[in-house]
């Protein structure tokens, strides 16, 4: 009888625990936690124009990373199968390794790890990134 109860508890408990853990991913949180000084470059590909730039100036890196660090995102629907984007963004550390990869769709929406994330408060400084395409030379993807 006791073994039977334990088995039922396990059969019910494990799925409930997994469901609870999954639901916790929908709690608003910050997706970007990067120290600007640990970033050597940010490569941004503009999906609208086909141009790509490599951002290396410390002031520009500082501004972008501080802006992204300060935004809380809400997880939304899955992004699989959706085409098109504004800025495909890759952040590199001082050793040249990728720290983060994500897509900026709009000033309040990014795609990250297969989901859309919305920023209900602070917004991505989309215009700042867009203006950097006039500052940096284009590099080939």
Offer a few descriptive terms.
3 helices, 7-stranded antiparallel beta sheet, alpha+beta, 141 residues
Written overview of the protein:
The structure is a single chain. By secondary structure, the protein is of the alpha+beta class. A seven-stranded antiparallel sheet has the order 2-1-4-5-6-7-3. It contains three helices and seven strands; from the N terminus they run αββαβββββα. The radius of gyration is 20 Å and the shape is elongated. It is 32% helix and 29% strand. Strand 4 and strand 5 form a beta hairpin. The model has no long low-confidence stretch (mean pLDDT 89).
Task: Briefly summarize what is shown.
Helices cover 32% and strands 29% of the residues.
How is the secondary structure organized here?
Elements: H1 2-24, E1 39-46, E2 52-55, H2 58-69, E3 74-78, E4 87-93, E5 98-106, E6 109-112, E7 115-118, H3 126-135
Antiparallel strand pairs: 1-2, 1-4, 3-7, 4-5, 5-6, 6-7
The number of helical runs is 3
One letter per element, helices H and strands E, the order comes to HEEHEEEEEH
Beta-strand residue percentage: 25-35%
Largest sheet: 7 strands, antiparallel
Which percent range fits the helix content? 25-40%
Strand order of the largest sheet: 2-1-4-5-6-7-3
> For the CA atoms, what is the radius of gyration?
20 Å
The SS-based structural class is alpha+beta
């Amino acid at each position: 009888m006791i073994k039977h109860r334990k088995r039922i508890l396990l059969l019910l408990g494990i799925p409930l625990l997994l469901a609870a853990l999954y639901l916790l991913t929908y709690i608003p949180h910050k997706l970007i936690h990067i120290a600007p000084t640990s970033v050597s470059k940010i490569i941004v590909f503009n999906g609208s124009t086909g141009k790509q730039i490599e951002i290396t100036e410390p002031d520009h890196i500082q501004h972008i990373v501080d802006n992204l660090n300060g935004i809380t995102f809400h997880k939304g629907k899955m992004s699989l199968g959706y085409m098109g984007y504004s800025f495909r963004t890759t952040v590199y550390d001082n050793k040249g390794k990728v720290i983060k990869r994500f897509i900026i769709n709009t000033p309040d929406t990014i795609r990250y790890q297969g989901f859309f994330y919305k920023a209900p408060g602070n917004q991505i400084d989309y215009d700042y990134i867009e203006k950097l395409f006039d500052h940096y030379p284009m590099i080939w993807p």
